[in-house]
Amino acid sequence: MERVAAPPGPPGHAPGIARDARRVLTDNWTGTSTVPSHGLYPHQWSWDSAFIAIGLRHMSPLRAQLELETLLAAQWRDGRVPHIVFDPAVPRGAYFPGPDFWRSSTSGRPAGAPRRTETSGIVQPPVHALAAWLVHRADPRASWRRGFLARVQPRLTAWHRYLTASRDLAGDGLPAVVHPWEPGMDNSPCWDAPLAHVTPADPESFRRADLHHGAAADRPTDLDYGRYVRLAVDYRAGGYADLGRPHAFAVEDPGLATLLALSEHALAEIALALGGDPRPHLDEAARLTEALVRRLWSPAAGQFLARDVRADALIPERSAAGLLPLALPDLPEAIAAEVLRTAEGPHFALGSAAATGLVPSYDLLGPAYDAGRYWRGPAWFNLNWLLERGLRRHGWADRAERLRAAIVGVGAASGFAEYVDPATGRPRGTRDFSWTAALVLDLLADEDPEGGLG
Class of 10-444 per CATH? Predict the structure, then answer.
Protein backbone atom coordinates (compact mmCIF):
# COMPACT_ATOMS: atom_id res chain seq x y z
CA MET A 1 0.00 0.00 0.00
CA GLU A 2 1.38 3.38 -0.98
CA ARG A 3 2.36 5.68 1.86
CA VAL A 4 1.47 9.28 1.04
CA ALA A 5 2.64 10.96 4.22
CA ALA A 6 5.96 9.66 5.48
CA PRO A 7 6.78 11.51 8.70
CA PRO A 8 9.87 13.69 8.38
CA GLY A 9 11.81 14.31 11.60
CA PRO A 10 10.71 17.61 13.13
CA PRO A 11 14.10 19.29 13.78
CA GLY A 12 15.17 19.90 10.20
CA HIS A 13 11.70 20.83 9.01
CA ALA A 14 10.48 22.71 12.08
CA PRO A 15 10.70 26.32 10.78
CA GLY A 16 8.64 25.64 7.67
CA ILE A 17 6.15 23.43 9.48
CA ALA A 18 5.67 26.01 12.24
CA ARG A 19 5.16 28.75 9.65
CA ASP A 20 2.50 26.70 7.87
CA ALA A 21 0.76 25.83 11.14
CA ARG A 22 0.64 29.50 12.14
CA ARG A 23 -0.83 30.34 8.75
CA VAL A 24 -3.71 27.86 9.33
CA LEU A 25 -4.48 29.36 12.73
CA THR A 26 -4.33 32.88 11.33
CA ASP A 27 -6.64 32.04 8.43
CA ASN A 28 -9.18 30.35 10.72
CA TRP A 29 -9.25 33.17 13.29
CA THR A 30 -12.52 35.12 13.37
CA GLY A 31 -11.49 37.95 15.68
CA THR A 32 -12.69 36.37 18.91
CA SER A 33 -12.23 32.64 18.32
CA THR A 34 -10.98 30.08 15.80
CA VAL A 35 -13.19 27.91 13.60
CA PRO A 36 -12.05 24.31 13.12
CA SER A 37 -12.42 24.91 9.37
CA HIS A 38 -14.37 27.54 7.47
CA GLY A 39 -16.38 25.18 5.27
CA LEU A 40 -17.21 22.09 7.31
CA TYR A 41 -17.19 23.63 10.79
CA PRO A 42 -17.93 27.39 10.54
CA HIS A 43 -18.71 28.02 14.25
CA GLN A 44 -16.83 27.65 17.55
CA TRP A 45 -16.51 24.12 18.91
CA SER A 46 -15.83 23.43 22.56
CA TRP A 47 -12.98 20.93 22.79
CA ASP A 48 -11.58 22.21 19.50
CA SER A 49 -11.10 25.61 21.10
CA ALA A 50 -9.30 24.06 24.05
CA PHE A 51 -6.82 22.24 21.81
CA ILE A 52 -6.51 25.29 19.57
CA ALA A 53 -5.67 27.51 22.56
CA ILE A 54 -2.89 25.10 23.52
CA GLY A 55 -1.21 25.79 20.17
CA LEU A 56 -2.20 29.45 19.93
CA ARG A 57 -0.30 30.21 23.15
CA HIS A 58 2.94 29.85 21.17
CA MET A 59 1.73 32.46 18.64
CA SER A 60 -0.23 34.84 20.81
CA PRO A 61 -1.02 34.09 24.47
CA LEU A 62 -3.57 36.91 24.34
CA ARG A 63 -5.45 35.26 21.48
CA ALA A 64 -5.30 31.94 23.30
CA GLN A 65 -6.86 33.54 26.38
CA LEU A 66 -9.56 35.16 24.25
CA GLU A 67 -10.29 31.80 22.58
CA LEU A 68 -11.17 30.27 25.93
CA GLU A 69 -12.92 33.35 27.28
CA THR A 70 -15.19 33.53 24.23
CA LEU A 71 -16.22 29.92 24.67
CA LEU A 72 -16.79 30.21 28.42
CA ALA A 73 -18.91 33.34 27.94
CA ALA A 74 -21.55 31.04 26.42
CA GLN A 75 -21.64 28.75 29.48
CA TRP A 76 -25.09 27.83 30.75
CA ARG A 77 -26.20 28.70 34.27
CA ASP A 78 -26.18 24.99 35.24
CA GLY A 79 -22.45 24.92 34.43
CA ARG A 80 -22.44 23.11 31.10
CA VAL A 81 -20.16 24.37 28.36
CA PRO A 82 -22.04 23.76 25.08
CA HIS A 83 -20.29 21.90 22.31
CA ILE A 84 -21.05 24.62 19.72
CA VAL A 85 -21.30 28.38 20.09
CA PHE A 86 -23.02 29.67 16.95
CA ASP A 87 -21.72 32.66 15.03
CA PRO A 88 -24.74 34.79 14.03
CA ALA A 89 -22.85 36.03 10.97
CA VAL A 90 -22.81 32.52 9.45
CA PRO A 91 -25.83 31.77 7.21
CA ARG A 92 -28.41 29.60 8.93
CA GLY A 93 -28.14 26.75 6.44
CA ALA A 94 -24.35 26.51 6.47
CA TYR A 95 -24.29 23.91 9.22
CA PHE A 96 -26.72 21.31 10.50
CA PRO A 97 -27.87 21.00 13.21
CA GLY A 98 -27.76 24.77 13.63
CA PRO A 99 -29.28 27.24 16.08
CA ASP A 100 -32.81 26.79 14.69
CA PHE A 101 -32.56 23.10 15.59
CA TRP A 102 -31.12 23.37 19.11
CA ARG A 103 -33.27 26.39 20.14
CA SER A 104 -31.05 26.85 23.18
CA SER A 105 -32.34 30.28 24.16
CA THR A 106 -35.88 28.92 24.50
CA SER A 107 -35.73 25.15 25.04
CA GLY A 108 -32.63 25.54 27.19
CA ARG A 109 -34.10 28.24 29.40
CA PRO A 110 -34.87 25.84 32.31
CA ALA A 111 -31.17 24.88 32.41
CA GLY A 112 -29.98 28.47 32.17
CA ALA A 113 -28.93 28.74 28.55
CA PRO A 114 -27.79 32.23 27.50
CA ARG A 115 -30.58 34.46 26.23
CA ARG A 116 -28.55 36.33 23.60
CA THR A 117 -26.10 33.68 22.41
CA GLU A 118 -27.30 30.60 20.53
CA THR A 119 -25.55 27.34 21.33
CA SER A 120 -26.09 23.61 21.09
CA GLY A 121 -27.46 21.79 24.13
CA ILE A 122 -24.92 18.98 24.48
CA VAL A 123 -21.29 19.06 25.62
CA GLN A 124 -17.83 17.82 24.65
CA PRO A 125 -14.86 16.54 26.70
CA PRO A 126 -13.54 18.95 29.36
CA VAL A 127 -10.05 19.84 28.14
CA HIS A 128 -10.53 23.48 29.07
CA ALA A 129 -8.88 23.71 32.49
CA LEU A 130 -5.78 22.01 31.14
CA ALA A 131 -5.76 24.46 28.24
CA ALA A 132 -6.27 27.44 30.56
CA TRP A 133 -3.33 26.44 32.75
CA LEU A 134 -1.02 25.91 29.78
CA VAL A 135 -2.12 29.23 28.26
CA HIS A 136 -1.39 31.02 31.55
CA ARG A 137 2.09 29.50 31.71
CA ALA A 138 2.86 30.76 28.19
CA ASP A 139 2.92 34.37 29.43
CA PRO A 140 2.21 34.60 33.17
CA ARG A 141 2.80 38.35 33.35
CA ALA A 142 0.19 39.10 30.68
CA SER A 143 -2.17 36.58 32.23
CA TRP A 144 -1.91 38.20 35.67
CA ARG A 145 -2.30 41.65 34.17
CA ARG A 146 -5.59 40.66 32.52
CA GLY A 147 -6.82 38.64 35.48
CA PHE A 148 -7.21 35.65 33.20
CA LEU A 149 -7.01 32.84 35.76
CA ALA A 150 -9.21 34.62 38.30
CA ARG A 151 -11.92 35.09 35.67
CA VAL A 152 -11.93 31.59 34.20
CA GLN A 153 -11.48 29.63 37.44
CA PRO A 154 -15.11 29.90 38.68
CA ARG A 155 -16.45 29.01 35.24
CA LEU A 156 -14.18 25.98 34.96
CA THR A 157 -15.10 24.86 38.46
CA ALA A 158 -18.82 25.14 37.64
CA TRP A 159 -18.23 23.19 34.41
CA HIS A 160 -16.61 20.31 36.29
CA ARG A 161 -19.33 20.40 38.96
CA TYR A 162 -21.97 20.02 36.25
CA LEU A 163 -20.27 16.88 34.91
CA THR A 164 -19.68 15.25 38.29
CA ALA A 165 -23.15 16.05 39.66
CA SER A 166 -25.72 16.42 36.89
CA ARG A 167 -24.14 13.78 34.63
CA ASP A 168 -23.47 11.03 37.19
CA LEU A 169 -26.45 9.13 35.81
CA ALA A 170 -25.49 5.78 37.35
CA GLY A 171 -24.55 7.26 40.72
CA ASP A 172 -21.17 5.51 40.56
CA GLY A 173 -18.85 8.52 40.43
CA LEU A 174 -18.34 8.86 36.68
CA PRO A 175 -20.02 11.32 34.30
CA ALA A 176 -22.11 9.87 31.49
CA VAL A 177 -22.71 11.19 27.99
CA VAL A 178 -26.24 11.31 26.57
CA HIS A 179 -25.35 11.72 22.89
CA PRO A 180 -22.59 10.11 20.77
CA TRP A 181 -21.25 13.56 19.87
CA GLU A 182 -20.45 14.34 23.52
CA PRO A 183 -17.35 12.15 23.98
CA GLY A 184 -16.03 13.70 20.77
CA MET A 185 -15.65 10.38 18.90
CA ASP A 186 -18.97 10.87 17.14
CA ASN A 187 -19.59 7.69 15.15
CA SER A 188 -17.24 5.30 16.97
CA PRO A 189 -18.21 1.63 16.68
CA CYS A 190 -18.37 1.71 20.48
CA TRP A 191 -21.73 3.44 20.14
CA ASP A 192 -23.25 0.99 17.66
CA ALA A 193 -24.81 -1.31 20.28
CA PRO A 194 -26.19 1.45 22.55
CA LEU A 195 -27.59 3.20 19.46
CA ALA A 196 -29.21 0.10 17.99
CA HIS A 197 -32.46 0.56 19.91
CA VAL A 198 -32.77 4.27 19.01
CA THR A 199 -35.40 4.91 16.35
CA PRO A 200 -33.91 7.23 13.69
CA ALA A 201 -35.58 10.52 12.90
CA ASP A 202 -37.46 10.70 9.62
CA PRO A 203 -34.80 11.42 6.95
CA GLU A 204 -37.16 14.00 5.46
CA SER A 205 -37.10 15.97 8.73
CA PHE A 206 -33.51 17.16 8.36
CA ARG A 207 -30.95 17.98 5.69
CA ARG A 208 -27.26 17.31 6.26
CA ALA A 209 -24.87 20.13 5.43
CA ASP A 210 -21.67 18.19 6.16
CA LEU A 211 -21.85 16.27 2.89
CA HIS A 212 -21.43 19.52 0.94
CA HIS A 213 -17.91 19.87 2.38
CA GLY A 214 -16.79 16.29 3.04
CA ALA A 215 -16.86 13.01 1.13
CA ALA A 216 -19.77 10.75 2.08
CA ALA A 217 -17.33 7.85 2.52
CA ASP A 218 -15.54 9.82 5.24
CA ARG A 219 -18.65 10.88 7.15
CA PRO A 220 -21.23 9.09 9.36
CA THR A 221 -23.96 7.22 7.51
CA ASP A 222 -27.49 8.58 7.08
CA LEU A 223 -28.77 5.91 9.48
CA ASP A 224 -26.37 7.04 12.19
CA TYR A 225 -27.24 10.66 11.55
CA GLY A 226 -30.94 9.91 11.90
CA ARG A 227 -30.27 8.43 15.33
CA TYR A 228 -28.17 11.44 16.35
CA VAL A 229 -31.02 13.73 15.37
CA ARG A 230 -33.57 11.66 17.29
CA LEU A 231 -31.50 11.77 20.48
CA ALA A 232 -30.98 15.52 20.19
CA VAL A 233 -34.68 16.18 19.53
CA ASP A 234 -35.67 14.14 22.59
CA TYR A 235 -33.07 15.89 24.77
CA ARG A 236 -34.32 19.27 23.58
CA ALA A 237 -37.93 18.28 24.25
CA GLY A 238 -36.97 17.53 27.85
CA GLY A 239 -35.52 21.01 28.34
CA TYR A 240 -31.99 19.58 28.26
CA ALA A 241 -32.53 18.07 31.70
CA ASP A 242 -30.17 15.33 32.86
CA LEU A 243 -31.09 13.66 36.15
CA GLY A 244 -34.51 12.23 36.77
CA ARG A 245 -35.44 11.52 33.17
CA PRO A 246 -34.83 8.56 30.85
CA HIS A 247 -32.03 8.74 28.28
CA ALA A 248 -32.10 6.40 25.29
CA PHE A 249 -28.31 6.69 25.11
CA ALA A 250 -26.21 6.87 28.31
CA VAL A 251 -22.56 5.85 28.27
CA GLU A 252 -19.54 6.30 30.55
CA ASP A 253 -16.58 7.03 28.30
CA PRO A 254 -12.95 6.57 29.41
CA GLY A 255 -11.73 9.47 27.28
CA LEU A 256 -14.12 12.02 28.79
CA ALA A 257 -13.45 10.73 32.33
CA THR A 258 -9.69 10.93 31.74
CA LEU A 259 -9.85 14.51 30.51
CA LEU A 260 -12.02 15.51 33.47
CA ALA A 261 -9.51 14.02 35.91
CA LEU A 262 -6.59 15.59 34.04
CA SER A 263 -8.31 18.96 34.11
CA GLU A 264 -8.91 18.59 37.86
CA HIS A 265 -5.13 18.39 38.19
CA ALA A 266 -4.96 21.61 36.17
CA LEU A 267 -7.56 23.25 38.44
CA ALA A 268 -5.37 22.31 41.39
CA GLU A 269 -2.48 24.18 39.74
CA ILE A 270 -4.76 27.16 39.06
CA ALA A 271 -6.03 27.19 42.65
CA LEU A 272 -2.48 27.12 43.99
CA ALA A 273 -1.41 29.95 41.67
CA LEU A 274 -4.35 32.05 42.91
CA GLY A 275 -3.43 31.44 46.54
CA GLY A 276 -6.14 28.84 47.14
CA ASP A 277 -6.16 25.24 48.32
CA PRO A 278 -5.35 22.71 45.57
CA ARG A 279 -6.32 19.74 47.74
CA PRO A 280 -10.05 19.56 46.79
CA HIS A 281 -9.13 19.32 43.12
CA LEU A 282 -6.40 16.77 43.73
CA ASP A 283 -8.82 14.71 45.80
CA GLU A 284 -11.41 14.93 43.02
CA ALA A 285 -8.83 13.86 40.43
CA ALA A 286 -7.89 10.88 42.58
CA ARG A 287 -11.56 9.98 43.08
CA LEU A 288 -12.20 10.13 39.33
CA THR A 289 -9.15 8.00 38.58
CA GLU A 290 -10.29 5.40 41.13
CA ALA A 291 -13.78 5.33 39.62
CA LEU A 292 -12.32 5.07 36.12
CA VAL A 293 -10.29 2.01 37.11
CA ARG A 294 -13.15 0.46 39.07
CA ARG A 295 -15.82 0.99 36.40
CA LEU A 296 -14.05 0.94 33.05
CA TRP A 297 -10.80 -1.03 33.33
CA SER A 298 -10.91 -4.40 31.55
CA PRO A 299 -8.03 -6.74 32.48
CA ALA A 300 -9.08 -9.09 29.67
CA ALA A 301 -8.84 -6.34 27.05
CA GLY A 302 -5.76 -4.74 28.58
CA GLN A 303 -7.35 -1.32 28.22
CA PHE A 304 -10.28 0.79 29.37
CA LEU A 305 -13.68 0.24 27.76
CA ALA A 306 -16.83 2.35 27.63
CA ARG A 307 -19.78 1.27 29.79
CA ASP A 308 -23.40 1.23 28.63
CA VAL A 309 -25.19 2.70 31.65
CA ARG A 310 -28.61 1.39 30.60
CA ALA A 311 -27.32 -2.19 30.37
CA ASP A 312 -24.73 -1.69 33.15
CA ALA A 313 -22.17 -3.54 31.05
CA LEU A 314 -18.84 -2.78 29.41
CA ILE A 315 -19.03 -2.35 25.64
CA PRO A 316 -16.68 -4.92 24.04
CA GLU A 317 -15.26 -2.57 21.41
CA ARG A 318 -11.75 -1.12 21.56
CA SER A 319 -11.25 2.57 20.84
CA ALA A 320 -8.28 4.83 21.37
CA ALA A 321 -10.22 6.52 24.17
CA GLY A 322 -9.40 3.43 26.22
CA LEU A 323 -5.69 4.28 25.98
CA LEU A 324 -5.99 7.91 27.08
CA PRO A 325 -5.81 7.21 30.85
CA LEU A 326 -2.05 6.94 30.26
CA ALA A 327 -2.12 10.74 30.52
CA LEU A 328 -3.12 10.56 34.19
CA PRO A 329 -0.29 11.00 36.72
CA ASP A 330 -1.91 8.74 39.33
CA LEU A 331 -2.80 5.81 37.07
CA PRO A 332 -1.38 2.66 38.72
CA GLU A 333 1.86 1.73 37.02
CA ALA A 334 0.85 -1.90 36.46
CA ILE A 335 -2.23 -0.74 34.55
CA ALA A 336 -0.19 1.83 32.63
CA ALA A 337 2.23 -0.89 31.53
CA GLU A 338 -0.65 -3.09 30.35
CA VAL A 339 -2.20 -0.20 28.41
CA LEU A 340 1.15 0.40 26.73
CA ARG A 341 1.33 -3.26 25.70
CA THR A 342 -2.12 -3.00 24.17
CA ALA A 343 -1.26 0.26 22.39
CA GLU A 344 1.86 -1.27 20.85
CA GLY A 345 0.16 -4.56 20.01
CA PRO A 346 -1.83 -5.52 16.91
CA HIS A 347 -4.99 -3.68 17.92
CA PHE A 348 -3.42 -0.19 17.69
CA ALA A 349 0.17 -0.67 16.40
CA LEU A 350 1.55 2.40 18.18
CA GLY A 351 4.97 3.21 16.74
CA SER A 352 4.78 0.56 14.03
CA ALA A 353 7.44 1.02 11.36
CA ALA A 354 5.01 -0.45 8.84
CA ALA A 355 2.56 2.44 9.28
CA THR A 356 2.51 6.13 10.19
CA GLY A 357 3.31 5.40 13.83
CA LEU A 358 0.05 7.05 14.87
CA VAL A 359 -2.65 5.30 16.88
CA PRO A 360 -5.96 4.74 15.03
CA SER A 361 -9.21 5.83 16.64
CA TYR A 362 -10.57 2.26 16.60
CA ASP A 363 -9.22 -1.29 16.81
CA LEU A 364 -7.31 -2.26 13.66
CA LEU A 365 -8.63 -5.81 14.09
CA GLY A 366 -12.18 -4.79 14.93
CA PRO A 367 -15.05 -5.91 12.70
CA ALA A 368 -16.18 -2.30 12.13
CA TYR A 369 -12.74 -0.88 11.33
CA ASP A 370 -12.76 1.61 8.44
CA ALA A 371 -9.55 3.52 7.73
CA GLY A 372 -11.37 6.42 6.11
CA ARG A 373 -14.65 6.95 7.95
CA TYR A 374 -14.50 9.61 10.65
CA TRP A 375 -14.01 7.99 14.10
CA ARG A 376 -14.26 4.37 12.91
CA GLY A 377 -10.54 3.93 12.28
CA PRO A 378 -8.65 7.03 11.10
CA ALA A 379 -5.88 8.51 13.22
CA TRP A 380 -6.72 11.82 14.91
CA PHE A 381 -4.04 14.23 16.04
CA ASN A 382 -5.60 15.28 19.35
CA LEU A 383 -5.75 11.67 20.60
CA ASN A 384 -2.15 11.08 19.63
CA TRP A 385 -1.11 14.36 21.29
CA LEU A 386 -2.68 13.16 24.54
CA LEU A 387 -0.96 9.79 24.23
CA GLU A 388 2.38 11.53 23.66
CA ARG A 389 1.92 13.35 26.98
CA GLY A 390 0.98 10.08 28.66
CA LEU A 391 4.08 8.29 27.40
CA ARG A 392 6.29 11.07 28.75
CA ARG A 393 4.45 11.15 32.05
CA HIS A 394 5.14 7.48 32.68
CA GLY A 395 8.80 7.73 31.73
CA TRP A 396 8.71 6.33 28.18
CA ALA A 397 10.54 9.28 26.65
CA ASP A 398 11.90 7.45 23.60
CA ARG A 399 8.45 6.24 22.61
CA ALA A 400 7.04 9.71 23.21
CA GLU A 401 9.68 11.27 20.98
CA ARG A 402 8.88 8.87 18.15
CA LEU A 403 5.19 9.65 18.46
CA ARG A 404 5.94 13.37 18.57
CA ALA A 405 7.91 13.09 15.32
CA ALA A 406 5.07 11.12 13.71
CA ILE A 407 2.41 13.65 14.73
CA VAL A 408 4.44 16.58 13.43
CA GLY A 409 5.54 14.86 10.25
CA VAL A 410 2.22 13.33 9.25
CA GLY A 411 0.32 16.44 10.31
CA ALA A 412 2.41 18.68 8.08
CA ALA A 413 2.59 16.25 5.15
CA SER A 414 -1.19 15.81 5.17
CA GLY A 415 -1.83 19.54 4.88
CA PHE A 416 -2.94 19.60 8.53
CA ALA A 417 -5.77 17.21 7.74
CA GLU A 418 -8.67 16.64 10.07
CA TYR A 419 -7.65 12.97 10.27
CA VAL A 420 -5.61 10.47 8.26
CA ASP A 421 -5.46 6.83 7.27
CA PRO A 422 -3.29 5.38 10.07
CA ALA A 423 -1.46 3.01 7.72
CA THR A 424 -0.64 5.35 4.82
CA GLY A 425 -1.11 8.85 6.19
CA ARG A 426 -3.56 9.65 3.41
CA PRO A 427 -5.43 12.82 4.44
CA ARG A 428 -9.14 12.48 5.09
CA GLY A 429 -11.85 14.92 6.09
CA THR A 430 -11.12 18.61 5.67
CA ARG A 431 -7.66 20.22 5.34
CA ASP A 432 -6.14 23.17 7.22
CA PHE A 433 -7.84 21.84 10.34
CA SER A 434 -7.20 24.10 13.29
CA TRP A 435 -6.46 21.68 16.10
CA THR A 436 -4.10 19.68 13.89
CA ALA A 437 -2.11 22.83 13.17
CA ALA A 438 -2.28 23.94 16.81
CA LEU A 439 -1.06 20.66 18.26
CA VAL A 440 1.72 20.34 15.70
CA LEU A 441 2.82 23.84 16.70
CA ASP A 442 2.70 22.85 20.36
CA LEU A 443 4.88 19.79 19.80
CA LEU A 444 7.42 21.90 17.95
CA ALA A 445 7.77 24.25 20.92
CA ASP A 446 10.83 23.76 23.09
CA GLU A 447 9.37 23.41 26.58
CA ASP A 448 8.49 21.00 29.35
CA PRO A 449 5.81 18.77 27.78
CA GLU A 450 4.33 18.04 31.19
CA GLY A 451 3.22 21.65 31.49
CA GLY A 452 3.87 21.64 35.23
CA LEU A 453 1.13 19.08 35.90
CA GLY A 454 1.45 15.92 37.89
Answer: mainly alpha
